[in-house]
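pinging the channel bc i need a second pair of eyes. not urgent but kinda urgent?? the chain im working w is below, pasted from the shared doc
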Amino acid sequence: MKNSMIKKVHIGLFVFLLLNLLLSVVLEWGFDNRMMFLVRVLIYATGVLLFFLTIKNRSAITYYSSLYILSPIVVFFSWLADGILGALLGSVFFAFLAPTDTIVQNDKYQIRSQYTGFLGGCCSYSLYETIFPLFEKKVGEFRAE
């Protein structure tokens, strides 16, 4: 009973995240940044919970949810073995979970630094306009030297 409920919540949140990705790529609109960070954290938490609830079944969902457990372990050991490999894998892993850093904001606009990973360049920013309290639109990108 618990497994199916958590699985439905996980899949629903994942579909919501994909819908936001589709909206942001096609229309450059998206849901509020804080709400999407919460959705990403909930997806990760339900993925970990699914792993522990389905570990005895050895089903496809167990192997899928094991990625949520194994990915930070792989990043940690690759960082111990070789700092550059760990930084590259960590950049990929944390791109999913890293919150965006808001530099300046007012009632209508926000300037955020873009996530470029641990080995990325400096000073890339995006300008977002708040359309409704729930939506935002990407106005443009710029780079400061």
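so The first strand starts at residue 29 and ends at 31. and The first helix runs from residue 2 to 26. — does that match what u expected or am i reading it wrong
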